[in-house]
Amino acid sequence: MIICDNVSFAYEPERPVLQNLSFHVERGETVGLIGANGAGKSTVMKILLGLLPCDGRVLVDGTEVKKATLGNIRRKLGFVLQNADHQMFMPTVFEDMLFGPMNYGATRAEAEARADAALEQLGITALKHRQNHRLSGGEKRMAAIATILAMEPEAVLMDEPSAALDPFNRRLVIQTIRGMTQTKLIASHDLDLILETCSRVILLSGGKKAAEGAAGDILRDRTLLEAHRLELPLCLAGYPNANDP
Q1: What letter does residue 16 receive in the DSSP assignment?
Q2: Phi, psi of 127 (to 5 degrees)
Q3: Phi, psi of 185 (to 5 degrees)
Q4: What predicted TM-score, i.e. pTM, was given to this entire model?
Q5: Which of 16, 18, 22 is nearest to 57 (CA)?
Q6: Largest CA distance in the chain
Q7: How far does Cα 100 stand from its chain's mean position?
Q8: Are the beta carbons of 34 and 160 closer than 8 angstroms?
Q9: In whole angstroms, how far apart are CA 44 and each of 32, 40, 47?
Q10: H-assigned helices in the chain
Q11: Per residue in 197-243, pLDDT tens?
């Protein structure tokens, strides 16, 4: 569904952010993108959406990401931003949910049906007519996910989906992610969330792929994680290092 082939990018020529990065995400997979601050996770997300140019090739569902294909690419990809306040800009949740589908050509009736289905899927129908500025952080994050689902993307990109959430709402987001059928690429420092939601993990370090493999293997390898300025998920804090006998 998603292919990055030898991708490089720099905001400044002498300071590369990504260097010859290659990975793929199969249709229906949930893949975690992990790494310390500055590893390039958010930059990868922006490149996939065509928000940043890059050297190398990026393909979404077989279509190369370039200026001429951006409309088609963005119909296939939904992006849940780290800060829901940057995503929710209409007065109410429902109006926000209608904006995307109608912008891509759906009739109002079609957009309303999609929005109602997404709200029901996430169990947040009660938020339908709530004003965005009156939502809690957890409610706003769930509404932001619903807004993306209403656009019926084939794949969803999530940047730090559990950021600033209390334990109850964090658990709700994890359950929501696990119930979503779309292909998902999740960038997060929350390694417990990654362990609970992702089958595979890509570890970025210094703009390069430092490791890739099953989430259970990568996230139990204390030596590997600490070498790249990460720590074991809290739920594995007492787990022996994967490299120990």
Answers
A1: E
A2: -85, -5
A3: -120, 120
A4: 0.90
A5: 22
A6: 61
A7: 18
A8: no
A9: 12, 6, 5
A10: 41-48, 70-76, 93-103, 108-122, 137-149, 167-179, 191-197, 215-218, 222-227
A11: 999 999 999 999 999 999 999 999 999 999 999 999 988 877 677 66
